[in-house]
Amino acid sequence: MTRLPVHTAIYGDFTISYNMNLFEELGRFCNLLYKTLRSSTEVKTYGSNLLLEMIKTGYDSLPIILLTGVFTGSVMTIQTAYQLTTSLIPKSTIGAIVTQSTVIELAAVISGLVLAGRVGARIATELGTMRVSEQIDALESMGFNSVTYLVMPRLLAGIVMFPLLYVFAATSGIIGGVASGALLGTLAPAEFMTGAQQYFFGSDVVFGLTKSLVFGFIITAIACYKGYYATGGAEGVGKATTQATVLSCIYILFADLILASILL
Amino acid sequence: MIEIRNLKKSFGSHLIWQNVNLDVLDGETLAVIGKSGSGKSVLLKHFNALLYPDEGYISIDGQNIFEKDYVNLRKLRQRFGVLFQGAALFDSISAFENVAFPLRYFRVMEEDEIQERALRSLEMVDLKQIGDKSPAELSGGMRKRVGLARAIVTEPDYLLYDEPTSGLDPLTSDEINDLINYMADSLDITSIVVTHDIHSVLKVADKAAYIDNQEISWSGTVEEMQHAEQKNLRDFIKASEYLIS
Q1: Pairing of strands B190-194, B14-24
Q2: I want to staple B6 with a disulfide (CB 3.0 to 4.6 A). Which of A161, B56, B98, B175 is the partner?
């Protein structure tokens, strides 16, 4: 891949070279997304991989998501109970706070950050290894559209499965909250559920699902980009994987802020 | 026929080679030789437009391949079989499925016919019995042979070999050379072999092109190569202990 020339300017070599590289990366990323979108009708090429990717992204991530949800909900309940020391506020408020926080924010964001490591790293490593071992070149040499065959199913799997994983994360979070309240004697399950139901709104779930869909796109798109264009052997694959994970986390947090500002 | 005219390639400011002009006739085997890092594999990847040059063109049957749109380029690539340096087998499927892979997607065939063609390809490289093994379970020589079986299963018009004998012991290297000859003779395939193995060149090639100082500094028949007077080429061949005169 030919790099753009770097020009010296009054702003300094570093600033200009950084900005030129940033634009080049952004352009290449958008080009990859465009090629992926254009190939969306070639179902025969990517269809066979799609189900497998959905299983790897969704089903195989269930244990960690359930664990994350349960512990997040439990800790939220304990900490909220710790903070609510006044008897003027009913204990059912704990259930309301934990449930709404979980549904609106924690289920999507915490599971997104976990999946950036699990799913994002897996995708970047798979594609990066295929790139440096010339398997992607082999696909292209056979006349395959490697973007259709490799990127499309991974991206679609992320967009479809992340919202489903969010549902499991939110549910397990609430269950974790109920269980920890009951086991520690802080809050009876009935009290928890009273508060939870009072402040449970369908619009919050839609917001959470929207966030998780966006996070799914961010994680898989970045991971596919980093892996697909990896260079430099094993070290390069490692670098691509690390960058995919870190960038996904950063952009998840950005997207979280933007979505909250726009949709709430 | 493949015609290469005035090809030039750089990566950023680093010039790989320029003024590359070569002809490859139908049924011929051309060996591209040169020191490590001279750009042999880079040149090979231009033949099926995996890489694009900065200047010049490659014409196949009178058509400039770099002017084709992506759909037609993919059709052109199906006329090529490629044996990559590390074989580039797909790790997640068995050796047999690797060989059958291009048939499943690009040929309208019944499953029986796919199985028969894939088995026949594996038979040609004497590996019929290992079809169910994964690439990780195969030796380097076996991987190369499976890669070759995959390259020929679609009955291509052209075969590209990237360092087919690198990393192999002399006996296995000779087996690969014999297979390359067999493909060229029995299937009448036009072949381009990138290698620094002079023994391989002498055994399989009709013509050779030597990349040196960022250009094709010598080209001719293999017989002419053995008597070439160009110093760098003679040193290159002598280092392989195959100088004839």
Answers
A1: unpaired
A2: B56
The residues spanned by each domain of chain A are 13-263
CB contact under 8 A, A137 and B88: yes
**Is B5 an 8 Å CB contact of chain A?**
no
The percentage of chain B sitting over the pLDDT mark of 90, rounded to a whole number, equals: 64
CA-to-CA distance for B83 and B138, rounded, in angstroms? 16
With beta carbons under 8 A apart, name residues in chain B contacting A2.
10-12
Interchain pair B84, A143: CB under 8 A: no
Model-level pTM greater than 0.90? Answer: no
Q: What is the DSSP letter of B126?
A: T
Chain A: closest CA distance from residue B66 (Å): 15
The rounded mean pLDDT for chain B is: 90
| pLDDT recorded at residue A8 | 39
Report the CATH architecture of B1-79+193-245. Answer: 3-Layer(aba) Sandwich (3.40)
Q: What is the pLDDT of residues A129-158, one digit of tens each?
A: 999 999 999 999 999 899 999 999 999 999
CB contacts of B97 in chain A (<8 Å) are none
- For the ranges B4-8, B110-114, B194-198, the maximum mean pLDDT occurs at B4-8
> Which own/partner pairs from B11-16 qualify as long-range (CB within 8 Å, at least 24 positions apart)?
B11/A2, B12/A2, B12/A3, B12/A5, B13/A5, B15/B214, B16/B42, B16/B214
